[in-house]
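Revision sheet: structure tokens.
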Amino acid sequence: MGIGRIGKHLLGSRWRVRKYFPPDVMAVIERAIRAGEATHSGQVVFAVEGALDGIPLFRDQPATARALDVFAHLRIWDTAHNNGILIYLLLADRDVEIVADRGIHARVGEAVWKTICATMEAEFKQGRFEAGAVTGIEAISRQLAHHFPKQGTGPNELPDVPVVM
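Predicted:
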């Protein structure tokens, strides 16, 4: 564990999330999720965490492992068609992880998710947090619409409101 990472996480808190994702940006993200879900039967969740603290930080938990924890905690795996997707941003590391449930992951594959993550991270590095989030949501929605197109009216199994951890 590097001292630089500890410092970034100790200084990065919820205020940083509010700085880069104020209420108006969160509303845009929610609308993008809702618009995407109108085209497919998947469930998309956007979660942002300012920084790790406590045990995850001192165990030097990577963003990938933390994203899996958040995926389980938010019960994204518990969708009817196993097509839930978590977009997880660990703001202190500017690291984006996509965790896709087995139903959609088997059809899309890791390479596509990595490409979407890289695109989002590039936007975030330029300070374009709203654009990065919406771009990622739209790319994921295209994949879901291709593999799980909307058929009739199904329930919205997970909230569309972005989650702040």
